[in-house]
Q: What sequence folds into this?
C-alpha cells in the first residue's frame, strides 16, 4: 500500500462504497476504498459443498455474532426483537443478500405531503431515476418490463423462472385480483458483463459460486479497479480524525496484524451501513465534535429503521421446487400505497421465496412446532419438505428517534473499538401492518390451494436493512447530511449508505442505496471546484 | 465405533447424553429407510461440528439434565423415552433459547447425510457446479395484472 496522501478515502467496500468508488474514478483522483473484510473466494462459497446450508449457521451466518469471523465486529442486539444481519467482506452484505432489487416508489419520497407522517425526502424519485437506470445497468438487473407498480423502467435481462412455487402463488394472486410481478433481481439470467448466467444453485444467500448474483465486488469494484481505484482489505477504521477548523484529515485504522496506522485524505466518504456508519461517527469524538463527528443535530444513530418482516408459509400437496433455483421469484405491491381503511399508514410488499432446502425445512419446521421430535419426525418432515413455499411481507418502518444505535459501554471488537448497541421496538403502526399482511397472505395461500398455512412474526433474524441513522435533509438541525450527502458540520465528509434514508419505504433498499451513492458521486464531481464551500 | 478424531471438549457423560438426545429427536425409521441421528457416522459428524459451539452446547445439555431432575427427580438418560422427548420438546421449543444449539447441531448434521438425502429424493451433492433445472414460466398468467393497470402514486 502506498500510504502517501490520497484524494478520496472511502470507508466500506460494500454496495454503496463500491458504487461511489466506480463513479468517482472518472475524476482520475487517487481513490482508496478500505474495508475491514477481505476479498471473497467464490470457490469457497458454501454452495460448493454438501454442507452448504449448515454453513449458514457458522461462517456464512447473517449474524456477525454467530459468524464470528476475524473480520467481523460484534453487535449488541439483545434489546431488539429483530437481530442484526450483515456481512463484512469486500462486497459487504451484497455477498449474502438474495438480490431482491425493487426501487422505492415515487410516493416514498413524499410521505409527509401524501400521508402526513415522518418527513419528505429532500430529493424525489425523478431525481434518482437516472441513477437507478445506471445502477440497473451496472448491476445487470433481470426482470420483466411493464410492472404496473412502477413508472416505466428498463431491465437488462429476462426474469428468473417462476417454477412450480411461483406459478402456484401467481395463480393465488390472480384468483384474488391482486397485483404480482416477477421480481427485479440482481441475478444474471444470461451472460452479462463477464458474469455467468444463473444455474439455479438455490444458495444465493450464502454467496453465489457461479458469479451470477451481482455482489458489489464483482460488479462495481471490478470496473473501479480497472480505473485505478485501490481496494485495501483488512483495514478496520477506529476513527476519522479532524483538524482545528473541523475538517476531516484522515483516519486511524488497524491493519490485519492489529497494527495501528494513520492515513490522511482530502475527502472522506462513509459507506459502512446504518450501523457501522453511526458507530464510526460516534467513535470519532474530539474537542470540536464532543458528541461524535458531524453530530451537531444530535441525530447520529437515531431514527434507526430495519423493516420488520413477517413470513407466511403455505404447504401444497404437489411437490414444488423449494431448494432449486434462486430464492427470488415474484413480488406483490398490492398493498404498498397508503389506504386509511386498513388501520395503518404506508404499506408493504410481499416477496415470495421459493422455499428451503433439507436443513432449512428442519429448522423452520421444528422451530414453529410443525415438525415434532421422536417417531413422528419423519412423517411431519416429509409433509413440509419440498412442499412449502412462502411469502415475506417487508413492512415500512417509520422513523422514531427512540430506535437508535449507540456505543456499548463494555463490548468491543478484537481491536478494542467500542461495539454498537441497538435499541429497537416495532411501532404500533408497523405491527398493525404486519398483522394485516399476514391475514392477506393467508388469503393468497388459500386461493392458491395450500392445504396448510402458518406464519411467524417478526422474522427474528431479519435485520437485513439498516437505515435512517444519519438522515439527509436541508435543515442542519433536523438532519446529519445535506441533500447531496455532505455532512452539515464537516464539509469534506460524505455519507452514501443506508444511514441517509429519511424513511424506509417498504422494499429491499440495496437498489436505492446504490442509486443514492451514484447521485452523491455525481454531485461531488459537479462541485469539485467549490466542494467545501 | 466412534472415531477418536472427533474429539471435543465434551466429557464422556456429555457425549453419552448428547447421543441419547440425538437418537430421541430423530430416531431411525425402517419405513423411510433412514438412520437415526445417533447413527455412528452422523453422530461422529455431530461431535466434529459441536466443537465450534461447545460452550453453548455444554450449557444446553446442563439445562436438559436440570429439567429432568426438576420434573422427575431422575437423570435424563434414566427416564423413559416418552418423558425424554417431552423434556426435549419443552426445552427446545419453549422459550429456552440456550437449547436451540442442540436443535441446530442435530439437524445440520442429519440433513446432509447421503442416506437421508437419497430417501428424500435429493441428490447427495453440492449445488455447484451442476445447479438444478427449474421449469419454464407461463407469462400469460400476467395478463389480468396488466389489464388492471397502474397502481403506484
A:
Amino acid at each position: 500500500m502506498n500510504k502517501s496522501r490520497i484524494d478520496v478515502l472511502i470507508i466500506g467496500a460494500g454496495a454503496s462504497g463500491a458504487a461511489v468508488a466506480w463513479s468517482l474514478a472518472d475524476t482520475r483522483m487517487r481513490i482508496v476504498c478500505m474495508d475491514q473484510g477481505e476479498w471473497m473466494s467464490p470457490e469457497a462459497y458454501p454452495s460448493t459443498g454438501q454442507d452448504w446450508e449448515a454453513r449458514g449457521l457458522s461462517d456464512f451466518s447473517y449474524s456477525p455474532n454467530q459468524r464470528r469471523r476475524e473480520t467481523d465486529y460484534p453487535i449488541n442486539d439483545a434489546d431488539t426483537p429483530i437481530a442484526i444481519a450483515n456481512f463484512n467482506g469486500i462486497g459487504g452484505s451484497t455477498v449474502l443478500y438474495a438480490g431482491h432489487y425493487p426501487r422505492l416508489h415515487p410516493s416514498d419520497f413524499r410521505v409527509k405531503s401524501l400521508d402526513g407522517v415522518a418527513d419528505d425526502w429532500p430529493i424525489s424519485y425523478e431525481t434518482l431515476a437516472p441513477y437507478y437506470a445506471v445502477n440497473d445497468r451496472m448491476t445487470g438487473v433481470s426482470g420483466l418490463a411493464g410492472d404496473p407498480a412502477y413508472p416505466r423502467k428498463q431491465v437488462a435481462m429476462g426474469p428468473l423462472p417462476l417454477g412450480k412455487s411461483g406459478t402456484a402463488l401467481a395463480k393465488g394472486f390472480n384468483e384474488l385480483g391482486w397485483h404480482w410481478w416477477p421480481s427485479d433481481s440482481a441475478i444474471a439470467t444470461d451472460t452479462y458483463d463477464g458474469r455467468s448466467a444463473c444455474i439455479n444453485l438455490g444458495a444465493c444467500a450464502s454467496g453465489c459460486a457461479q458469479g451470477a448474483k451481482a455482489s458489489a465486488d464483482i460488479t462495481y469494484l471490478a470496473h473501479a479497479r480497472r480505473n485505478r481505484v485501490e481496494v485495501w482489505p483488512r483495514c478496520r477504521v477506529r476513527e476519522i480524525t479532524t483538524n482545528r477548523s473541523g475538517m476531516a484529515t484522515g483516519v486511524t485504522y488497524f491493519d490485519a496484524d492489529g497494527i495501528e496506522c494513520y492515513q490522511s485524505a482530502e475527502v472522506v466518504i462513509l459507506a459502512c451501513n446504518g450501523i457501522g456508519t453511526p458507530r464510526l461517527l460516534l467513535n470519532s469524538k474530539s474537542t470540536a465534535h464532543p458528541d461524535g463527528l458531524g453530530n451537531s443535530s444530535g441525530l447520529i444513530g437515531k431514527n434507526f429503521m430495519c423493516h420488520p418482516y413477517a413470513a407466511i408459509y403455505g404447504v401444497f400437496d404437489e411437490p414444488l421446487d423449494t431448494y432449486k433455483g434462486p430464492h427470488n421469484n415474484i413480488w406483490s405491491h398490492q398493498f404498498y400505497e397508503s389506504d386509511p381503511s386498513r388501520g395503518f399508514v404506508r404499506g408493504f410488499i410481499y416477496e415470495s421465496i421459493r422455499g428451503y432446502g433439507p436443513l432449512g425445512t428442519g429448522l423452520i419446521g421444528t422451530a414453529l412446532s410443525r415438525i415434532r421430535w421422536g417417531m413422528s419426525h419423519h412423517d411431519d418432515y416429509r409433509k413440509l419438505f419440498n412442499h412449502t413455499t412462502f411469502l415475506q411481507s417487508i413492512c415500512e418502518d417509520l422513523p422514531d428517534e427512540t430506535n437508535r444505535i449507540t456505543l456499548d459501554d463494555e463490548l468491543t471488537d478484537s481491536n478494542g473499538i467500542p461495539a454498537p448497541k441497538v435499541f429497537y421496538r416495532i411501532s404500533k403502526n408497523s405491527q398493525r401492518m404486519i398483522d394485516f399482511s399476514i391475514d392477506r397472505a393467508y388469503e393468497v395461500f388459500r386461493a392458491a390451494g395450500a392445504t396448510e398455512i402458518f406464519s411467524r412474526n417478526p422474522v427474528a433474524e431479519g435485520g437485513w436493512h439498516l437505515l435512517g441513522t444519519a438522515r439527509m435533509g436541508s435543515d442542519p438541525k433536523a438532519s446529519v447530511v445535506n441533500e447531496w450527502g455532505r455532512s452539515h458540520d464537516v464539509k469534506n465528509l460524505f455519507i452514501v449508505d443506508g444511514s441517509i434514508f429519511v424513511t424506509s419505504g417498504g422494499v429491499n433498499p440495496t437498489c436505492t442505496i446504490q442509486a443514492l451513492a451514484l447521485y452523491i458521486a455525481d454531485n461531488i464531481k459537479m462541485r469539485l471546484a467549490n466542494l467545501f464551500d | 465405533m466412534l472415531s477418536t478424531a472427533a474429539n471435543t471438549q465434551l466429557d464422556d457423560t456429555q457425549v453419552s447424553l448428547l447421543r441419547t438426545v440425538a437418537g430421541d429427536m430423530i430416531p431411525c425409521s425402517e419405513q423411510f429407510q433412514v438412520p437415526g441421528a445417533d447413527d455412528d457416522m452422523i453422530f461422529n459428524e455431530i461431535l466434529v461440528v459441536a466443537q465450534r459451539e461447545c460452550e453453548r452446547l455444554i450449557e444446553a445439555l446442563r439445562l436438559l439434565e436440570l429439567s429432568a431432575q426438576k420434573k422427575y427427580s431422575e437423570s435424563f438418560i434414566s427416564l423413559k423415552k416418552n418423558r425424554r422427548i417431552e423434556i426435549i420438546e419443552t426445552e427446545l421449543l419453549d422459550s429456552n433459547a440456550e437449547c436451540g444449539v442442540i436443535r441446530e447441531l442435530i439437524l445440520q448434521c442429519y440433513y446432509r447425510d447421503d442416506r437421508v438425502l437419497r430417501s428424500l429424493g435429493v441428490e447427495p451433492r453440492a449445488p455447484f457446479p451442476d445447479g438444478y433445472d427449474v421449469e419454464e414460466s407461463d407469462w400469460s398468467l400476467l395478463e389480468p395484472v396488466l389489464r388492471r393497470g397502474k397502481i403506484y402514486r
